[in-house]
Amino acid sequence: MLTEIRDTRLYVDQRGAADTPPLLYLHGGPGAGSYDFLAFQGDRLAERLHVIGVDQRGVQQSDPIDGPVTEDIVIADFEALRERLGIEQWAILGHSYGGRLALRYAANHPSSVSRVIFENPPWDMVLATRTLVETAKPLLTELGLLDEANRLLSWTGPATTEMWTDRTTLLQQLGERRMEIYLGPASRDLVLPAGDLPQEIQDRAGYFAQTIAQSTSFNESLIPLLSRLSQPALLIKGEHDPVTSLEEIRHFRTDATDGTYRLFEGAGHFVHAEQPAEYADAVTDFVLR
């Protein structure tokens, strides 16, 4: 359903009993929407949790945007949604880019967030880009894209919109083979559902990504926020995930005061889809613990 939040309408999908612990899902992309995650995890998690999936402003079934958007604006939407739903405190789960939003949200609104779960997040865009390109290097070499890859690997400054644009352009050149670097070896035939949405709605993802990538917030390293987490935190990492770097994992394990690290062997970037039953158990047990 579309729910009026601040100056827009957000598409909200609620599942599970309202008297069970609430869990807000923060999708990645940026601009991916919540459909594919809920297709694999919505009903599983709803067996014991009140699951709330939301398409961020300007994404998929939410109203389109026609102006600037920042990570703080998106998080303010989450806070307004929590108040609209009458939820005092909820656990949050951020996949991929959503893990950046989850860290900002939990660190800046500790009284609103009871627990936080990260699935393969890019807290530092330079580190995440380097990890991604290194993982993709054999495929990029095969396709004659090694020079473009080396330019990104040589990036030494802070993250910028230019770096993100170069990364996006490089990955687009992989075409249908792009998912080879994101999925574990046993999941190469997995198809992530996009839903039967009109092309106009699906195209909103690209505009959202272009817009938020131009904001200062998008390029900030969020690693310093890990030490500000006051909630129990769970970092889920797929063994073959190409996004979260070893340095980010090290910071989580040393800086998060109540952090738990869980490696899913054999999985890639989409643990929730590649190992759905084990993932649902891990998330549910952590929220209810």
Describe this structure in words.
This protein is an alpha/beta fold and 289 residues long. Helix content is 42%, strand content 17%. The chain contains twelve helices and eight strands. An eight-stranded mixed β-sheet has the order 1-2-4-3-5-6-7-8, sandwiched between helices. The protein is globular, with a radius of gyration of 18 Å. The two termini are 30 Å apart.
Q: Give me the Rg, rounded.
A: 18 Å
Order of helices and strands: EEEHEHEHEHHHHHHEHEHH
Quaternary: single chain
* Secondary structure: number of strands: 8
Q: Mean pLDDT score, rounded? A: 95
What is the beta-strand fraction? 15-25%
Residues in helices, as a percent range: 40-55%
Q: Give the structural class.
A: alpha/beta
Termini gap: 30 Å
Helix tally? 12
- Largest sheet: number of strands, sense, barrel closure: 8 strands, mixed
Low-pLDDT stretches are none
| Gross geometry | globular
Walk across the major sheet and give the strand order. Answer: 1-2-4-3-5-6-7-8
Features:
alpha/beta, 12 helices, 289 residues, eight-stranded mixed beta sheet
Give a topology summary.
Layout: E1 2-5, E2 8-15, E3 22-26, H1 35-45, E4 50-55, H2 71-85, E5 90-95, H3 97-108, E6 113-119, H4 125-142, H5 146-153, H6 161-172, H7 199-202, H8 204-213, H9 216-219, E7 233-238, H10 246-255, E8 259-264, H11 271-274, H12 276-288
Parallel strand pairs: 3-4, 3-5, 5-6, 6-7, 7-8
Antiparallel strand pairs: 1-2, 2-4
Quick structural summary:
The chain is α/β, with parallel strands linked by helices and 289 residues long. The mean pLDDT is 95.
